[in-house]
Amino acid sequence: MWQEKEGGTGASAEYALQDIFGFLAQ
Predict the structure, then answer these.
(1) What's the predicted TM-score (pTM) here?
(2) Is the distance from CB of 15 to CB of 5 less than 8 angstroms?
(3) Cα gap 5→21, rounded to integer Å
(4) Predicted pLDDT of residue 13
(5) Three-state SS across 1-26?
(6) How many C-alpha atoms does 13 have within 13 Å on its Cβ side?
(7) Distance, C-alpha 22 to centroid of its chain
(8) Residues 1-26 pLDDT 10s
(9) Residue 13 CA from chain centroid, whole number
């Protein structure tokens, strides 16, 4: 689960993608 950071939905989307790719990489 990613944590919502300051910066709006755009930043949240980036963290979400990083979390998804990180999960797939495992």
Answers:
(1) 0.43
(2) yes
(3) 18
(4) 81
(5) CCCCCCCCHHHHHHHHHHHHHHHHHC
(6) 3
(7) 9
(8) 556 656 566 667 888 899 899 999 88
(9) 6
